[in-house]
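seq:
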Amino acid sequence: SGLAAWPCLLQPLSLAGEFGYSGILAWLAVYAAEKRCFVPLERRWRDALFPLLAVALLAGWSLWRFAWMEQYVPEEGTPVTALLCQGNIRQDVKWTQAYRAETLRKYEELSLAAVDETRLGQKLDGQGGRHDFILWPETAMPFFYPGDGPLQSEIRRFARDIDTPVVFGALGRGEGSLLRNSACAVSAAGDLGRCDKKHLVP
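struct:
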């Protein structure tokens, strides 16, 4: 998002959603352009009151929301080191049955290469070393987890072999036929747990 550098400006997403907020911003831009081009100068300030008020309300609510969230950010904590891997899997093939194993293989190869590189750096110059966990992206795995299938078993085997926990996004099953966007964690000892996304935006 073009607003990623200003997190407080992203907070209206929690009310309007991605498309709703984009529509509001687009409408404000079109409204301002229309008044600039087609409205006489003496009427512009009067007609600008409504969009200015809308912007002020959005900005005020965003700042309040951003400040409200800070109470959930701990002031102190234990530092951790994560190894981040991004597979850049094409979306038109990611969810196909035939490509699921290939997606998992690619993430395993990327993770192994990064682990080997950091451990080599530790030996050569003392930099790097062991990671607390490996992190794969949201819905990186295009299948349900947990489960007892071959792909689920392969992730557990991978975590055992590298002796490092893996945190990854996958599909989860909710009540009935409800699907969940889940974050899962697995270590050498087995499954650590699953956390389902409750809200689709910040």
